Amino acid sequence: MILYFIDTLLAVGVIAAGFCYHLYPVEEAEGLAARINTLFGYVGGGAIIAAILALPLGVPVFILVFGVGDVSPRELVRDQGFLLGLALQAVASPVSFRDLVVALHKYTPDQLGLKRRFAFVFLRWVGGSLSHSRRFRTRLDAPERSYW
Hints:
This protein has 148 residues and is mainly α. The chain has helices spanning 2-23, 32-68, 73-78, 80-106, 109-112, 114-141. The longest helix has 37 residues, at 32-68.
């Protein structure tokens, strides 16, 4: 569930960074320093939007995983599957941003449906987290049965 949460935040960040790119294309910046500054602006814009959404979306995750699920952050850091998932997401996000930039050269955000994609990512998270919370609730109600 933590990887799903991180994936959702990264997807939101990529969409927000793509929108920032549409508003302020890096190609219009003069000089290398200005272009690097613009690229970091995209990352910052995406990170701000993701951080704003992280609190309301993340509180249930931390309650379910670290409270009810009785998982410690140290256990997650030692889990090779979790680390592999983080690494794959760290690689996939810049690739997704690059693909979005290429698409924004050909189409407008309306033609790409960026608003619809943002809504889909957000609603996917809400639906997914509800299904995870039902599994946790069921597991707590009947601990002798395994649903994993």
